[in-house]
Design brief:
Strand 17 and strand 18 form a beta hairpin. It is built from two helices and 29 strands. The protein is mostly beta strands. It is elongated. The protein has three domains: about 220 residues, no CATH class; about 90 residues, Immunoglobulins (Immunoglobulin-like), CATH 2.60.40.10; about 90 residues, Immunoglobulin-like, CATH 2.60.40. Strands 3, 4, 7, 8, 10, 12 and 13 form a seven-stranded mixed β-sheet that branches. Strands 16, 17, 18, 19, 20, 21 and 22 form a seven-stranded antiparallel β-sheet that branches.
């Protein structure tokens, strides 16, 4: 008889309100379980199960002290998993059951024990196996896990019955030995918090130191949940959001003005993650007109996939504007930006403080929208200079403006 059964028997006898009988295993679950639809088996620890089980159960509130919980570890490789089905082999003792529902917990790893709680699904009614104790448990929404080590705990919800309990079937060892806890201390166990079951809690029959369970679902993809664009004169703001990412090197931002798409930028991704990520890119090299944008998501291994394209119209500015040059002061070059309300013939010249023209930057026809021109003053001396714009619009409007800039060498 397993030693942990003896431990439970000894402790429960001390509660004289109850008459205790030694638990007897009956109706052990099959080692083969069915799993849902097209779900992929991600982790399978059901074959090679033992003949004994360890309690993992949640009683009604008046018997909270007897609540206990088992957990076993598993490793998630790259690119990560989206778990939507959990199965385990289990058994009811002395004719009790079925449980009303089950609780499923996922924990981060902390050394060789469960750490912080990652996700939990409480009061889930299994889609199969409730009568026998070998549960088929749907997980909705799916639990997305990045690569690493985790612990899963499966706990049956059932009424208290002396000697009648639920047990999670043992399995031969994989990774770290299973863990167990009994926070209320109702069984007199030393594992008020998580402890290595074989070393510090109830001892199983060697070599069955783990639990029998299986995880199914899908590999975590790069899931793009939104891709949007907004425009002002001369500027397009792009934003996209991912729910999960796998092996994601990043995104090529591609633009089309009616012809072929061209790559205008690359934005680094977050590798593999199950956390929501928000990305932005500002395109400041557009004129008035219609544009299309798309993303080329690139994995570290070179594979790629395109997003759907988003279309945006860049409006014309409402008025003519000459912006202050940047940087200012400057050495030896600076950028001058301006906006045209309509298509115009434009000239831009630079003068020194004596009114002498020292450079012609523009002299020609430009379309409505935002424009930039670079002024290189390598051949000029330190001092104050003026730049002047004259624009004659096709609608008859005229615009003239002058601004000051400072060259420091």
């Amino acid at each position: 008889m397993p030693k942990f059964f003896s431990v439970l028997f000894i402790v429960l006898v001390s509660f004289s309100l109850f008459a205790q009988e030694l638990p007897v295993i009956s109706g052990k679950g099959e080692a083969k379980l069915t799993y849902k639809g097209d779900a992929v088996v991600l982790y399978d620890q059901t074959s090679g199960a033992g003949t004994n089980s360890l309690t993992s159960q949640n009683f009604e509130a008046s018997f909270d002290a007897y609540d206990n919980q088992g957990a076993d570890d598993f490793v998630v490789p790259a690119p990560g998993w989206a778990i939507d089905l959990v199965e385990n082999l289990g058994v009811y003792y002395n004719g009790t059951g079925p449980a009303t529902s089950v609780n499923v917990f996922f924990y981060n790893n902390s050394g060789t024990l469960p750490g912080t709680l990652v996700e939990q699904r409480l009061n889930v009614i299994p889609s199969g196996g409730l009568a026998t104790g070998s549960f088929v448990i749907p997980i909705s929404p799916a639990v997305n896990l990045a690569p690493g080590t985790y612990w899963v705990s499966i706990q049956a919800n059932l009424d208290f019955n002396v000697g009648g309990q639920y047990g999670w079937t043992e399995h031969n060892p994989f990774n770290s030995p299973s863990a167990w806890q009994n926070p209320g201390g109702g069984f007199g166990t030393p594992c008020a918090t998580w402890g290595a079951r074989v070393a510090t809690c109830a001892v199983g029959t060697a070599p069955y130191t783990d639990f029998a369970f299986r995880l199914s679902g899908q590999l975590v993809p790069v899931e793009l949940t939104s891709f949007t664009a907004s425009a002002d004169f001369g500027v397009v703001e792009l934003q996209w959001i991912t729910a999960t990412e796998t092996n994601n090197q990043g995104f090529e931002v591609q633009r089309s003005a009616g012809g072929e798409f061209e790559t205008i930028a690359f934005v680094d991704g977050h590798g593999t993650t199950t956390q929501t990520q928000v990305y932005t890119y500002t395109d400041r090299s557009v004129n008035v007109g219609a544009y299309s944008y798309r993303l080329k998501q690139v994995d570290f291994d070179g594979t790629f996939e395109y997003s759907n394209a988003v279309e945006i119209d860049v409006p014309a500015p409402a008025e003519f504007v000459l912006d202050q040059n940047y940087p200012n002061p400057f050495n030896p070059s600076t950028m001058i930006s301006f906006r045209l309300a309509v298509d115009s013939k434009v000239s831009m010249t630079v003068f020194n403080v004596l009114g002498q023209e020292v450079a012609t930057l523009l002299n020609g026809n430009l379309v409505a929208g935002s424009h930039q021109v670079t002024f290189d003053a390598t051949s000029l001396n330190t001092g104050v200079y003026m730049y002047r714009i004259e624009a004659s619009g096709i609608d008859g409007t005229n615009f003239v403006d002058v601004k000051k800039m400072i060259l420091t060498k």
